[in-house]
Amino acid sequence: MRPSVRDYAREFLTMFEGYVRQMYLDDRGLVSTGVGYLIDSVDDAARLQWVRIAADGRSDGPSASRKEVEEEWKRVKTQQQWKGIGGGNFIAKARATQPPIITLQMAATEVDRTFMAMLNGLERTMKETPGGFFQDYENFPADAQLGILSHLWANGANNLHKRWPNFCRLCKERKWREIIETKHYRWKNIRKDRDQAMIRVFTNAANLEDANAKGFSFDAALVYYPQLILPLQEIEV
After folding, report:
1. Confidence category of residue 236, pLDDT binned at 50, 70, 90
2. What is the DSSP string of 171-225?
3. Three-state SS at 140
4. Sequence-ordered list of residues with C-beta below 8 angstroms from that of 4, at least 6 positions apart, any chain
5. What is the value of pTM for the model shown?
6. Is 99 helix (H, G, I), strand (E, B) or coil?
7. Closest Cα to residue 193, out of 16, 26, 20, 28?
8. 129-175 tens-digit pLDDT
């Protein structure tokens, strides 16, 4: 991915995924943490670095044992009545119970590590999609890369050519405007603000390539979001 995308991806995705250091249930009732990082097995949770929440409710305390992590994961998993209320709301409710359900949080450095591991893993799997749909991915406009990664973060990267064939084809053909006009980027439970962000990043990619084809010199390596690159007819005015 382009360096500007790597630098901005976490800020962009956090706007929609949230940033939660504790365990919580997502809208499907799966245990998650960090920036939408799925840990829906005890072993997944135990592979991460957890610390006890200090008495002030914010700071990091001592490292947690595997037994503590397993017990916390099981407590969170059983709270299916709170799935889909958002990570922050889940944590507030879970910590208000007596005794509290939430007593641990990931070390801050572990949030960074898991985010980059997930981002790199999704991108690697996407590039290996059969059919060469993303063979020119490194040359896509930065805003288009951002939109693709947001799509992968929400839907996964496995079997893209089977689950999202039109999206793959249009990416290969660089038909960014058709992706948004025919809603090929959309998934079932996409939030309105994320929907609008996806429209904007792919619109930027389309407008940038239209303008550069006419002799303008927008730098495709830069992320323009949240600003909007104007349509060609407005640039020429």
Report:
1. low
2. HHTT-HHHHHHTTTT--TT--HHHHHHHHHHHHHHHHHHHHHHTT----TTS--T
3. coil
4. 142, 221, 222, 223
5. 0.87
6. coil
7. 16
8. 999 999 999 999 999 999 999 999 999 999 999 999 999 999 999 99
